[in-house]
């Protein structure tokens, strides 16, 4: 079963107090980070008509944004270690606001790639990584619940932004909508202001103030040393980490394309535009309750030791829902698909970073999440454009859902099977280590016994020599 790593922070996290305000701030920043690339897909049809872009070309906008958000993880980790989460999130909020405002003046698809994809993706990266890191500083026992509440920001904001963007599109056009959206994203700066650094009990003791100052100096020295190294490739020596990253890459490749193209698919089935946008809201509304609920379930004594298997089940469930989507045609059936897709997506993203914390521990998590996000940027970058290319080639959305669902189900089954092997090997290695330790103890005891016998026989031999 999954071992829960010991806390290596040197102090016991508060598990409450101001930590819940930090969770609220993370809820806002993570909400914008994950919902924005999906919600702006409502503008895609209008942008396609004005700029003359194909399905695969317009899909690169969300794809580049998501890829840069994930690829910026190592840079964000270094900045968080050096400056803390608060200034990093504030800077990310400013970049997000500027990216949307400048994109509203775009006249080419390449310009949108630069503004929304690269600048906006960097801002979202700062928001995401810094928010996840500071939660691990404030929570340990209640960490799955805190992560679930913070990650619930994605469906909450998606539920709100999808109909809002459709309204703004009909009222102000896609340019005016991006301008207003940029102003809304400046609220990430307010969220960052809530993320004050965690204060430990030893820092509150005046008797140990000098030791604390010395420790802070050492920490800054270590941060400068770590800043020289963006990626820690020693994680690839960890079998559990390798299994996690392979399954995760497969999920990320197929996870976002069905959401990005859901509104367009519904419109192609004869659904009215506002009703098609509400499908994203329905998915987000369901996801909103599933994430904290999954956090509560994952925090139970029965599930937490088996959280990696729970994560595998969530992936298989999510992929199966995508595979069944092309079989439905009516709007009611699409609503049912949106509900179950929200359930599957919410379960996966409530567990995706908790499982990494479970494997790596609090101390190694900031570096590990940076490495994970930069690896995930490649499937994130390729997934939606490949799906859009299938639509361009076949003129039908069903192949998109078949491809994405198959990849996600395969990733979930891979995680389940390989985790069984991983924990079997862990138990086997632990047993071998215990046997080796017992053998070493026996050798030491035998050596001590031999020395004692020699000490007893030496006086007798001397007496015999004198006689």
UniProtKB/TrEMBL annotation:
It comes from the Eukaryota. It is a multi-pass membrane protein. The chain crosses the membrane at residues 58-80, 87-105, 111-132, 144-164, 176-195, 241-265, 277-297, 309-329, 335-356, 368-387, 399-421. It holds the Pfam family MFS_1. The lineage of its organism: Eukaryota, Metazoa, Chordata, Craniata, Vertebrata. It catalyses: 3-methyl-2-oxobutanoate(out) + H(+)(out) = 3-methyl-2-oxobutanoate(in) + H(+)(in); 4-methyl-2-oxopentanoate(out) + H(+)(out) = 4-methyl-2-oxopentanoate(in) + H(+)(in). Keywords: Cell membrane, Membrane, Symport, Transmembrane, Transmembrane helix, Transport. InterPro entries: MCT (IPR004743), MFS (IPR011701), MFS_dom (IPR020846), MFS_trans_sf (IPR036259), Proton-linked_MCT (IPR050327). Belongs to the major facilitator superfamily. Monocarboxylate porter (TC 2.A.1.13) family. It is found in: Basolateral cell membrane. Residues 19-423 form the Major facilitator superfamily (MFS) profile domain. GO terms for cellular component: basolateral plasma membrane. Signal peptide: none annotated. It comes from Parambassis ranga (Indian glassy fish). This is Monocarboxylate transporter 2-like. GO terms for molecular function: monocarboxylic acid transmembrane transporter activity; symporter activity.
């Amino acid at each position: 079963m999954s071992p829960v790593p010991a806390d290596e922070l040197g102090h016991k996290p508060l598990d409450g107090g101001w930590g819940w305000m930090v969770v609220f701030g993370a809820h806002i920043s993570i909400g914008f980070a994950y919902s924005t690339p999906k919600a702006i897909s409502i503008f895609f049809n209008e942008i396609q008509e004005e700029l003359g872009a194909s399905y695969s070309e317009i899909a690169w906008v969300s794809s580049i944004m998501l890829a840069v958000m994930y690829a910026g993880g190592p840079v964000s980790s270094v900045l968080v270690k050096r400056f803390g989460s608060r200034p990093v999130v504030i800077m990310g909020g400013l970049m997000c606001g500027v990216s949307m405002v400048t994109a509203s003046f775009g006249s080419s698809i390449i310009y949108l790639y630069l503004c929304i994809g690269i600048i906006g993706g960097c801002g979202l990266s700062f928001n995401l990584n810094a928010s996840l890191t500071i939660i691990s500083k404030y929570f340990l026992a209640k960490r799955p619940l805190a992560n679930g509440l913070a990650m619930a920001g994605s469906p909450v904001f998606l539920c709100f932004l999808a109909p809002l963007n459709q309204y703004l599109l009909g009222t102000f056009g896609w340019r005016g909508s991006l301008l207003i959206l940029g102003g809304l994203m400046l609220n990430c700066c307010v969220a960052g202001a809530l993320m004050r650094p965690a204060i430990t009990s030893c820092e509150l003791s005046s008797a140990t103030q000098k030791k604390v100052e010395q420790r802070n100096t050492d920490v800054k020295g270590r941060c400068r040393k770590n800043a020289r190294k963006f990626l820690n490739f020693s994680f690839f020596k960890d079998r559990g980490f390798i299994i996690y990253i392979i399954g995760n890459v497969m999920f990320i490749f197929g996870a976002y394309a069905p959401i990005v193209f859901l509104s367009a698919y519904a419109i192609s089935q004869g659904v009215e535009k506002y009703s098609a946008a509400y499908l994203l809201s329905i998915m987000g509304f369901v996801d909103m309750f599933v994430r904290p609920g999954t956090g509560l379930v994952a925090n139970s004594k029965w599930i937490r030791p088996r959280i990696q298997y729970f994560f595998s089940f969530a992936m298989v469930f999510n992929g199966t829902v995508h595979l069944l989507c092309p079989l439905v045609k009516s709007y009611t059936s699409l609503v049912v698909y949106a509900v179950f897709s929200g359930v599957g997506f919410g379960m996966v993203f409530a567990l995706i970073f908790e499982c990494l914390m479970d494997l790596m521990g609090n101390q190694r998590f900031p570096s590990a999440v940076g490495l994970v996000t930069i690896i995930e940027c490649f499937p994130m970058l390729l997934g939606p454009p490949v799906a859009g290319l299938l639509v361009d080639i076949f003129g039908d959305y069903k192949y998109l859902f078949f491809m994405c669902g198959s990849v996600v189900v395969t990733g979930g089954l891979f995680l389940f099977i390989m985790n069984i092997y991983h924990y079997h090997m862990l138990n086997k290695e632990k047993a071998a280590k215990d046997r080796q330790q017992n053998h070493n103890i026996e050798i030491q005891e035998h050596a001590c016994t031999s020395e004692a016998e020699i000490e007893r026989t030496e006086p007798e031999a001397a007496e015999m020599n004198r006689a």
